[in-house]
Specification:
two-stranded antiparallel ribbon; 11 helices; 342 residues; 43% helix; 5-stranded antiparallel sheet; 2 domains; alpha+beta
């Protein structure tokens, strides 16, 4: 509940999920109370002076403590406290607050804010990572459904096409509606999410006809963003140099999708999740997080083939997950990884 409400307050949810939260808030007093607590915590301090070293469950423990103390000590009809001394010493001890008391209280609130906000940020980041993993899980499930319904296995990305074209196959075969795809393709922990939520970038799932008739500039833009925050697996070249598609075998060591890479991140890995690594979805629908850009016993690079190109694999076991606009044939941007290091 808390992760969902944090994502709602931070604007990380799509329209359908936001509407679901709104409807729940209208009818559920527990959710309403939790939302008020989170709003109060977030307004307590605008800046975050500390960034690390706080336990992930600090938000839960702190807010629970606040709720417990409030329920235990709330007086039935207490008179307002006075900043001046009462002449009745017995009453004064019970009802008056000194400036020293206020200073101590302010100090406690300041420390509480310093402790709470790093934890809130960690909770927010965890909620975004969970949402991103859930998106990948749903996309992976859609790919498996496509493979089971199609004699062709997973959606094909042919030479001359871009990796993101798999979304067109999912939409055209009624595996996922275009509106669903648009929401699933944006990872909240990606730089692209900021652009989308600010309205500077719009994800569109084109039709085959629109791809054929688009101008050069429009086609380049569609190709760049149609797969959103994620990368899809290319095929490979066999020993005769012929381009082959990846077979669907439900294997736990065969990646299908991952957070998309970026040349600006060391090692040519994903900028999502702070540039620290990437989630990868495999054919058995398992999801694993790799803090490097390689996976498997042989440390195969997820985004570059054995020739250090962002292009089709050099053989069936050479995994390459392509950015949305990337072509398995290679091209001007194929040699992204030649000057990068692991």
């Amino acid at each position: 509940m808390r992760d969902e409400l944090l994502a709602y307050l931070l604007g990380d949810l799509g329209p359908e999920e936001s509407q679901r939260i709104v409807e729940r808030l209208e009818s559920d007093p527990i959710w309403q109370r939790e939302l008020k607590i989170l709003e109060s915590c977030m307004k307590a301090r605008e800046a975050d002076p500390l960034s690390t070293g706080r336990p992930a469950d600090l938000v839960d423990r702190t807010c629970s403590l606040v709720r417990y103390a409030a329920a235990k000590n709330h007086p039935p009809q207490a008179a307002p406290a006075s900043l001046t001394e009462s002449r009745d010493r017995a009453v004064s001890r019970l009802r008056s607050w000194s400036f020293a008391d206020l200073a101590v209280g302010a100090g406690v609130l300041l420390v509480l804010g310093m402790l709470l906000f790093p934890a809130l940020r960690e909770s927010r980041d965890a909620a975004r990572r969970a949402k991103c993993q859930n998106n990948l899980k749903n996309l992976g499930t859609a790919l498996v459904e496509y493979a089971e319904k199609s004699n062709h296995g997973l959606p094909h990305v042919d030479l001359g096409e871009n990796a993101g074209s798999f979304v067109v196959d999912l939409a055209e075969n009624d595996i996922l509606a275009r509106k669903q795809l648009v929401e699933l393709l944006v990872c909240p922990s990606s730089p692209l999410a900021d652009e989308v939520f600010a309205g500077r970038v719009m994800i569109q799932i084109p039709t085959p006809q629109s791809l054929k008739t688009a101008s050069k500039e429009s086609l380049a833009l569609m190709r760049k963003f149609m797969a959103g925050s994620y990368a899809y697996r290319f095929g490979y070249r066999d020993e005769h140099g012929r381009y082959r598609q990846i077979k669907f075998e439900g294997r736990a060591d065969a990646p299908m999708l991952a957070d998309a890479p970026n040349i600006s991140v060391a090692g040519f890995q994903s900028p999502n999740h702070g540039g620290c690594g990437q989630n990868v979805v495999f054919q058995d629908l398992s999801i694993r997080y790799f803090d490097r850009c390689s996976a498997g016993e042989n440390a195969d690079h997820l985004f570059l083939n054995e020739d250090r190109e962002h292009a089709a694999g050099r053989h069936a076991r050479d995994v390459v997950l392509g950015r949305s606009e990337a072509d398995p044939a290679g091209g001007p941007n194929a040699e992204f990884g030649l000057r990068t290091s692991e």
